[in-house]
Design goal:
single chain, alpha/beta, 7-stranded parallel β-sheet, 33% helix, 16% strand
C-alpha cells in the first residue's frame, strides 16, 4: 500500500521541496497550504493561521497517514521595545499550536513505522531581534521530545529538523526589516533540497532509532 504523508506549507520553500521529494520517492502526499502545491500533490486548501481544530479534524478525517511534516512557518522580527503581541501570537499559533493540533489528530492513529518531523529553526536557541520567532520554534523541541517519549513504544518517531538561513522566499521577506540573514561559513545559504533530503531520511526505515532529536542544518553557522 502506498504510504501517505501530510506536509504543511507545501506550496513554497522548504515545505514545497519536501512535498516534491516525497512525491518523487513514491509517497502519496497531501499538502496543506493556502496556495496550490506542485502537480501530483493532493491539496487541502486551509489557512493554518485561522483554522480551528474541529475544521482540521474534519479535513483530515478520511486520510490514513504514515507521516506528518509540519513545515508551514512565518517570520516576524523586532527588537526589544518594539515587540508586537499580535505578531508573536501569529507565529506561536502557526508553529506551535498547529503542530499540536495536527499531532493530536494524526499521531494516535499512526501504527509502527509512523513518522513526525517538525521544521524548527537554528535560531531556537536565541537570536537578537527574533525573540518571538525563536520562542515559537524552541517550543517545537519540547513538543517533539514529549511526543517522542509517548509514542516510542509503538515504533513511531518524532524529530525536529532545524535549518539555518535557507534560500527560500522567507529569506527575502520584507518583514525581516533590518535583521538580514548571515551567510554561513560554507559560503552559501542552505538549499531547500538539502533540508528535504534529511526529512526524507528521517521518514524512512533506516531512521527508526532516531527520535526526540533536534538536527540542525546550518552550513556551519552554529559552530
Amino acid at each position: 500500500m502506498m504510504r501517505r504523508a501530510v506536509v504543511t506549507g507545501a506550496s513554497s520553500g522548504i515545505g514545497a521541496a519536501i512535498a516534491e521529494r516525497l512525491l518523487a520517492q513514491g509517497w502519496a502526499v497531501t499538502g496543506i497550504s493556502r496556495s496550490p502545491p506542485a502537480p501530483g500533490i493532493d491539496h487541502l486548501a486551509l489557512d493554518l493561521a485561522s483554522v480551528t481544530a474541529a475544521e482540521l479534524r474534519e479535513a483530515l478525517a478520511d486520510l490514513s497517514v504514515q507521516a506528518l511534516v509540519h513545515a508551514a512557518g512565518i517570520l516576524r522580527v523586532a527588537p526589544l521595545g518594539s515587540l508586537e503581541q499580535s505578531e508573536g501570537a501569529a507565529m506561536w499559533r502557526l508553529h506551535a499550536d498547529c503542530a499540536a493540533m495536527l499531532a493530536d489528530i494524526l499521531l494516535p492513529a499512526m501504527t509502527a513505522g509512523g513518522r513526525v518531523v517538525l521544521i524548527g529553526s537554528r535560531t531556537a536557541t536565541g537570536s537578537p531581534g527574533r525573540s518571538q520567532y525563536a520562542a515559537s520554534k524552541a517550543a517545537l523541541v519540547g513538543l517533539a521530545r514529549s511526543w517522542a517519549a509517548e509514542v516510542a513504544p509503538h515504533g513511531i518517531t518524532v524529530n525536529v529538523v532545524a535549518p539555518g538561513a535557507t534560500e527560500t522566499p522567507m529569506l527575502k521577506d520584507p518583514a525581516r526589516g533590518s535583521v538580514s540573514p548571515r551567510l554561513p561559513p560554507i559560503g552559501r545559504f542552505v538549499q531547500p533540497g538539502e533540508v528535504a533530503a534529511l526529512v526524507s531520511f528521517l521518514l524512512g526505515d533506516e531512521a527508526a532509532a532516531i527520535t526526540g532529536q533536534q538536527i540542525v542544518v546550518c552550513g556551519g553557522a552554529s559552530l
